Amino acid sequence: MRDSMILSPGSAAETARLGRRLGALCRPGDVLLLAGDLGAGKTTLAGWIARGLGVPDQYHITSPSFALLHEYPGRVPFYHMDCYRLAGEEDVEAAGLTEYMEGSGVCAIEWPGRLGSLRPSDCLEIRLEAAGGEARRITLTAHGRSWQERLRQLAAGGSGPSPVQGG
């Protein structure tokens, strides 16, 4: 089962609100797939999701491109992965990243296409596209029942970027 929602935050502040709201909706074991071109804002959004998870401001959320994984404390652990430098699912397994996707924290994965068949069936896919200036087009696609319900909660939330289209 899948549901999608397309959002168009027109400012950095609206994107921050969206990220915080997503983080607040996250539960232990959740996997978020952050897709988009270089410079689309994946790491920035991951930072706002971390704040919504209660990661303290003293932790600067940076791209884990070279380290592959950064871990942060919050109300649940936040695991931020970047698979850009990996060739595919064999590299993901060799790096030991699958155990984080099956753990009790929240896992945000940049460049999720590298996961191949390791991509979880229950996850939230977040596709970011630059739309000029600070504006973004963000497509949220729920894979699995738990994220379908949370997308409905997000849509009903009121504040933040407004949905352009439901799916």
Secondary structure elements and pairings:
Elements: E1 2-7, H1 12-25, E2 31-35, H2 42-52, E3 69-72, E4 78-82, H3 89-94, H4 98-101, E5 106-110, E6 123-130, E7 136-143, H5 145-156, E8 163-166
Parallel strand pairs: 2-5, 2-6, 4-5
Antiparallel strand pairs: 1-7, 1-8, 3-4, 6-7
Helix pairs in contact: 1-2
Account of the 3D structure:
By secondary structure, the chain is an alpha/beta fold. It has one domain: P-loop containing nucleotide triphosphate hydrolases (Rossmann fold, 3-Layer(aba) Sandwich), CATH 3.40.50. It is built from five helices and eight strands, in the order βαβαββααβββαβ. It has an eight-stranded mixed sheet. α1 crosses α2. The N and C termini lie close together (11 Å).
Which spans of ≥5 residues are poorly predicted at pLDDT below 50? 158-167
In DSSP terms, counting alpha (H) and pi (I) runs of 4 or more, how many helices? 5
Total separate domains: 1
Taking the sheet with the most strands, its summary is:
8 strands, mixed
Strand content: 25-35%
Question: CATH top level?
Answer: Alpha Beta
State the total count of DSSP E strands: 8
Strand order of the largest sheet: 3-4-5-2-6-7-1-8
Looking at this structure, what is the CATH superfamily? Answer: P-loop containing nucleotide triphosphate hydrolases
Order of helices and strands: EHEHEEHHEEEHE
Rg, Cα atoms, Å? 15 Å
CATH fold annotation: Rossmann fold
Distance between the termini: 11 Å
Assign a percent range to the helix content: 25-40%
| Envelope shape | globular
Calculate the mean pLDDT score and round it. 89
Structural class estimated from helices and strands: alpha/beta
Architecture in CATH?
3-Layer(aba) Sandwich
